[in-house]
From TrEMBL:
Residues 9-23 have a biased composition (Basic residues). It holds the Pfam family Mutator. InterPro entries: Mutator_transp_dom (IPR049012). Residues 1-60 are annotated as: Disordered. This is Mutator-like transposase domain-containing protein. It comes from Ornithodoros erraticus (European soft tick). Residues 122-314 form the Mutator-like transposase domain.
Length: 330
């Protein structure tokens, strides 16, 4: 029988034939058999009850529940009061000058800090000192008006060794006009020389300007040698960086407390960026950029940019024997 003609040819031929065996029937993986589990025949073999846990070790239902914290919204009157307090604080800062505002925030007082900022230095005429010593008695012979000052001894920069001498008995006593700075070295620089370096740097000048100033004031014919000036700069750099970092950290803490009164989000402050160069025009080699808080005027960060190095200028040349050692230490 050919089958129903309404079916396809392959379908008609499929009827009445034996089903073919699958080609991979013998190699097909069988389902793994599970181990048999022997159940207890009676209920007596089952444990009567589970061991009881202490109360502190028992699982608590509340341990898995997350506490819900609802957002507390301010009323319109509270928001208005906060805005008014912020406005009054900003108006109070804007009503004072920039210098007084910074000194007030940092707690600087000229009346108390002027004496406690270290040694004080005064430029004195030696002739005026000799006139003052005319009324002083000599401690050795008791003669009056016989004490005179002598400055013809050694001098290191602005530090001079002066002596007080009696013209009657010849008694003499000498001392330096400045104390030495504290440090780990055996011989540390004089404080007056370090302060002179920092002072001349603060006005954007160098060792040549310092020597010209001292020569004009008849203090000394040469204040500091250029190599001594460069050597002391490395000492003052770390101290200046530490002082700047301490001042900026203090300014950040003050600004944080101030913006809490403004009800401002943490870290959201108003700042401006300002920069200055050593000289006018576009030929300056040294500049500094500062990030300044808008309301207080306090500096919270800075960066120094320079394409000029005085150490490379005064250092040895490439053909010098000590150039390799100097370059490694520079």
């Amino acid at each position: 029988m050919g089958g129903d003609i309404r079916l396809k040819v392959n379908t008609r031929r499929a009827y009445g034939k034996k089903r073919k065996r699958a080609w991979n029937k013998g190699t097909a993986s069988r389902a793994p058999s599970l181990p048999s589990i022997s159940l207890p025949e009676s209920e007596d073999s089952l444990p009567r009850s589970l061991p009881e846990l202490p109360e502190e070790e028992q699982p608590s239902v509340s341990a898995t529940i997350v506490d819900r914290i609802d957002t507390a919204y301010l009323t319109e009157s509270e928001e208005a009061q906060i805005a008014e307090n912020a406005r009054l604080a900003k108006d109070g800062l804007a009503s004072t000058s920039a210098t007084r505002r910074k000194f007030s925030l940092l707690g600087v007082c000229h009346e108390t800090d002027a004496v406690s900022c270290g040694s004080q230095f005064v430029i004195v005429d030696i002739a005026s000192l000799n006139e003052l010593m005319c009324s002083v008695l000599c401690g050795s012979c008791g003669a009056s008006g016989s004490l005179i000052f002598d400055t013809s001894d050694r001098s290191y920069g602005l530090a001079t060794k002066i002596g007080m001498k009696c013209t009657s008995c010849g008694a003499e006593r000498k001392t330096w006009t400045s104390r030495r700075t504290k440090g780990e070295g055996t011989i540390t620089p004089f404080e007056v020389n370090v302060r002179a370096i920092k002072a001349i740097q603060s006005i954007g000048k160098g060792v040549t300007a310092l020597n010209d100033f001292c020569a004009t004031m008849n203090l000394t014919h040469q204040a500091l040698h250029h190599k001594t000036f460069q050597h002391h700069l490395t000492r003052t750099k770390d101290a200046c960086m530490a002082a700047a970092l301490q001042s900026e950290q203090r300014s950040v803490e003050i600004i944080k407390k101030l913006y809490e009164e403004f009800d401002s989000p943490p870290g959201n402050i108003d700042v401006i960026y300002d920069g200055t160069w050593m000289t006018r025009g576009r030929r300056s080699h040294i500049g500094v950029g500062c990030i300044v808080e808008l309301c207080t005027g306090l500096v919270i960060d800075h960066v120094v940019l320079s394409n000029f190095c005085l150490g490379c200028v005064v250092g040895p040349g490439e053909d010098d024997e000590t150039y390799a050692v100097w370059k490694e230490q520079h």
